[in-house]
Structure formats: C-alpha cells, structure tokens
Amino acid sequence: MDKIVVLVSFVGLLLGTAGSNLSDDVVVLGELESLEIEGDDVELFDYPSWTSERGSKVLVNVDGFGAVGDGVSDDTQAFVNAWKQACSTPKSVFLVPKRRRYLVNATRFKGPCADNLIIQIEGTIVAPDEPKNWDPKNPRIWLNFFNLTGVVFQGGGVIDGSGNKWWAASCKKNKSNPCKGAPTALTIDSSLAVKVKGLTIQNSQQMHFVVSRSDSVRLSDVQISAPGDSPNTDGIHITESTNVVLQNCKIGTGDDCISIVNASSNIKMKTIYCGPGHGISIGSLGKDNSTGIVTNVVLDTAFLKDTTNGLRIKTWQGGSGSVQSIRYQNVRMENVSYPIIIDQFYCDSPTTCQNQTSAVEISQILYRNISGMSKSENAMKFACSDTVPCKRIVLNNINLEKEDGTVETYCNSATGFGYGYVWPSAECLTSSDKDLIIKPTQEVELAKPSPENLLHSEL
Ligand SMILES: *[C@@H]1O[C@H](CO)[C@@H](O)[C@H](O)[C@H]1NC(C)=O
Ligand SMILES: *[C@@H]1O[C@H](CO)[C@@H](O)[C@H](O)[C@H]1NC(C)=O
Ligand SMILES: *[C@@H]1O[C@H](CO)[C@@H](O)[C@H](O)[C@H]1NC(C)=O
Ligand SMILES: *[C@@H]1O[C@H](CO)[C@@H](O)[C@H](O)[C@H]1NC(C)=O
Ligand SMILES: *[C@@H]1O[C@H](CO)[C@@H](O)[C@H](O)[C@H]1NC(C)=O
Ligand SMILES: *[C@@H]1O[C@H](CO)[C@@H](O)[C@H](O)[C@H]1NC(C)=O
Ligand SMILES: *[C@@H]1O[C@H](CO)[C@@H](O)[C@H](O)[C@H]1NC(C)=O
Ligand SMILES: *[C@@H]1O[C@H](CO)[C@@H](O)[C@H](O)[C@H]1NC(C)=O
Ligand SMILES: *[C@@H]1O[C@H](CO)[C@@H](O)[C@H](O)[C@H]1NC(C)=O
C-alpha cells in the first residue's frame, strides 16, 4: 500500500488564514510538546518498607481484631475496629495478612488519620456477592477511603468485588433489568498525597478504582481485570482530581481502562497496558447539559489491544466547558476498532440524543507517535459539533493501518494540522482552510528537533 508523507508547512498554515494562525500554531505546538505534569517519577518508587523498619512501626493486624480470613465469615467489624486503631496511631501499618481471604461489606474508612499510615494489603479482600443483600445505605461504594493525607497502599494483595451477579443484574446485560448503579470496588476520596503501589483489583461490581476530589495521587504497578463483557466496569476513573500520576498499570475490563472526567487536571499516565475494554478516555463530559472541564493530560507509552476505542475524547451534546491541552504519545494499537477518536455526539442512553447548539469545547490535542492496527476503516475519527468545532488538533508520526483494507480519517467540524508522517492522511482537518498550501516536499522546521519520520512496531 502506498503511503503519503504529508508535510504541512507552517508557511502554508500562515497563508491559510481562514482558521489558522502561525504564531498560534507555533505556540500551541510548543506548549503541547513541553506539557509537563508535576510528579517526579523517581519519587514514585520511594515506598516505605514496613518490614525492615518494623521497630518504628506499629503493626495493626486485622486478625488481632477477630478477622477470620476464611472467605466466608463476615470480617467487616474486625476491619472497622482495626481501622480505628491504625488510623489513630502514628506510624501504624494496617495489615491484611497474606494467604487469606477476608469477606468485607461496604465500609467507609475515614480520615484524618495520624501521620505515616501504611495500608498493607497482602491477602485478598472479597466482597459479598449477592446484590440483594447489599447494604442499602451504601449502594455505590464497597471499600471507600475518605479524607486521608500522606497514606500509602501497598502489599501486592487483591481486592475482589465478586461482581458476577451484579453484572447479570445490569440493564446493559438484560433490558428488563432496572438501570441502577452498582458499587465501586475501591475509592480514594477527598484525599491528599496518597500512593498506591502493587495492588490487584478485580471483578468489581461496577467501576474498579475511583480517585475523586483528591490531589497528588500516585498509582503504580496496579493491575485491574474483569471480563470484557462485564458492564460499566471502568478500570481507573478520575474525577475532580489534580496531579494524578498512573504508572505501569495493566488494565483489562468491560468498559474504559481509564476514564478522566470533570474538574480534573494535571494527569499523567505512563506505561499503560489496556485491553480488553473501551480504551483510554477523557469523558464522558457534558451529560444533561452539565459543565465538564479537563485540562493538561499526558499519556506517554501505552499498548492497547482488543479494545473498542484507543485514545478517546467523548462528550454529550448540550454540555459546556472544555477539554484542552492533551498530549498522547508513543502508543501502539492492536485490533482496536477506533484508535483515535473524538466523539462530540456521545450518547450512552437507550433513547437517541438530540443535537444541540452547546457542546464541550475541544482544543489543543496532540497525537504523536501513534501506530498499529485499526479494526475499522475510521482509524482516526474527529466527530465534532457543528456549532462548537474541535480546534488545534495536531498529528505527528501517525501510522495506523487495517489488516484487510484501507483506512481513512473522518472529520466533522474539526481543524488542526499534521506534520511528519501521517497515515491515514488527515487533510480533512485543514479542509476548511480553502487557501491552505500543502507542500509535500517541504520539511518543517520546529523549535525542537524534528522526530524521526517513521514509527516502530515494538513498544
Ligand atoms: C494570531 O494570534 C496572535 C497571538 O495569539 C494574535 O495576536 C493575532 O491577533 C492572531 N491573528 C489572527 C489573524 O487571528
Ligand atoms: C478532613 O480532615 C481534615 C484534617 O486533615 C479535617 O480538618 C476535616 O474536618 C476533615 N473533614 C471531614 C469531612 O471529616
Ligand atoms: C454485612 O452484610 C450482611 C448482609 O447485609 C449483614 O447481614 C451483616 O450484618 C453485615 N456485617 C456487618 C458487620 O455489618
Ligand atoms: C432477563 O431478565 C428477566 C427478568 O428478570 C428474565 O426473566 C429473563 O430470563 C432474563 N433474560 C436473560 C437473557 O437472561
Ligand atoms: C464539575 O466540577 C465542578 C468543580 O468541582 C463542579 O462545581 C460541578 O458541579 C461539576 N459538574 C458535574 C456535572 O459534576
Ligand atoms: C438541555 O438543554 C436543552 C436546550 O436548552 C433542553 O431542550 C433540554 O431539555 C436540556 N436537557 C436537560 C437534561 O436539562
Ligand atoms: C479483536 O478484539 C475483539 C474485542 O474487541 C475480540 O473479540 C477479537 O477476538 C479480537 N480479534 C483478534 C484477532 O484477536
Ligand atoms: C448531529 O449532527 C451530526 C453532524 O452534523 C450529524 O452527523 C448527526 O446525524 C446529527 N444527529 C442527529 C440526531 O440529528
Ligand atoms: C517514537 O517512538 C519510538 C519508539 O516507538 C521512540 O524511539 C521515539 O523516541 C519516539 N519519538 C518521540 C518523539 O517520542
């Protein structure tokens, strides 16, 4: 198959005055390329070793509070009592011992706690599996951590939501079921400076891990898994949070691997494996005419396999707010239906959604070094609102193909530009600029050294 190297010159963009502005584009590109999210990677690995410093730590073992750990006995009260003790004692370690299964009901673990609390989960915490008996006072939570500062979760253990019966009871599985929400397995809410390292979360009733209303949260080596057909089982969901770093996470579920929603900014994702699932998403935003704002998001190094979407931004008609300053780079796709997609007509509803004049504004989105295989023809899809166009979409070093057939870029009301190698070509991004001059032979000089033209097949 022939590939076209499209080198859009900035001179061309300058002449195409309709929707482009040289100084703007250079500024945008510069900003996107240098977009740095606070969060020192080195610091990520600076986890306290509670065993080697046991002398100075106070061990609070749930077994000491009557937990049985046989997977059958109700250990909720033991966890609640152990939490009271651990939370009120400086330098304590809340220990869930290994090789045991603790059955625990919906529980709120509230802070503030004394300094330097470590939550050491080595064994398995399992949820009761019967939706009918779930605590009616806590319909949407299972393990909920609230108002913590400077807490570390670690230990290599497992959090298992026993979601099977919840999935079967979902209206997405069976239209005659009522549509109601199910619990989130693990929530970190209204917290500051929390680190989570090396935990497995699986088979959640609904979302697996929610970070809400929090600042400075670092997740690393977190594994999340649920069947590809389990409904609404998002992996990591970030809402109203800032300065969140996700690193080395492996996620496969029945919904978004990662979803970033309203009032979230400075989010960095590094080395993410996603699949099966619905991809790595910003949104959905703007449902029921609401305002949604997400800014400064970087994804660097990801591998997506067998997902319905790759890099997705999804917003509802009628919303307001914005998605701005997003950079995706070094991403490899395999068997992904829509590798790059902006969908401003998102409608996850049994009834059709009417088009409206208002929409969440999308601008300054950079896709760089993205390669792999698309399952659909629309390897790149920019479906933007007629009244609120997507602006300043920048593509660089894109190589997306389809095993059996051609790929193309779909644009509706989207503007931006590509440079370097871009396949499928994305001329439709600039098609509104009738005067745009594309000079296929002219190399672009950027402020930074131009990245190599070609993509590589290995991550
Ligand atoms: C181009 O952008 C610059 C800087 O934002 C602004 O001052 C100028 O008015 C813009 N020109 C046009 C034609 O929009
Ligand atoms: C949360 O913790 C802070 C101290 O860190 C305390 O002042 C505040 O009252 C707590 N909020 C709630 C709702 O418990
Ligand atoms: C856990 O939930 C079950 C079922 O609702 C209930 O019978 C039991 O009392 C709960 N345990 C605690 C400690 O609240
Ligand atoms: C859907 O739910 C209804 C009512 O609960 C039940 O009778 C029916 O067997 C279910 N269908 C499937 C395919 O599970
Ligand atoms: C979005 O976040 C802002 C700021 O936290 C909040 O005021 C607003 O209610 C949120 N919107 C929705 C739809 O949750
Ligand atoms: C959203 O706004 C549109 C247009 O003003 C209105 O028709 C619609 O009923 C609103 N929807 C909701 C859920 O408020
Ligand atoms: C492609 O991904 C879909 C899920 O989206 C999966 O069902 C299918 O088996 C995958 N195909 C291959 C060839 O792996
Ligand atoms: C909404 O607008 C888009 C873009 O113009 C169009 O493709 C789509 O059919 C419209 N949807 C409805 C429900 O009118
Ligand atoms: C593009 O990806 C390759 C490997 O996939 C990497 O070596 C190169 O540094 C990347 N370029 C940029 C600009 O990140």
Automatic annotation (TrEMBL):
Catalytic reactions of this protein: (1,4-alpha-D-galacturonosyl)n+m + H2O = (1,4-alpha-D-galacturonosyl)n + (1,4-alpha-D-galacturonosyl)m
Pfam families named in the record: Glyco_hydro_28
Keywords: Cell wall, Cell wall biogenesis/degradation, Glycosidase, Hydrolase, Repeat, Secreted, Signal
Gene Ontology molecular-function annotations: polygalacturonase activity
Endpoints of the signal sequence: 1-19
Gene3D superfamilies, per the entry: Single-stranded right-handed beta-helix, Pectin lyase-like (2.160.20.10)
EC number(s) reported in the record: 3.2.1.15
Single GO BP term: cell wall organization
SUPFAM superfamilies: Pectin lyase-like (SSF51126)
Enzyme class, UniProt record, top EC level: hydrolase
Location in or out of the cell: Secreted, Cell wall
Family, per entry: Belongs to the glycosyl hydrolase 28 family.
Protein name, as recorded: endo-polygalacturonase
Protein species of origin: Actinidia chinensis var. chinensis (Chinese soft-hair kiwi)
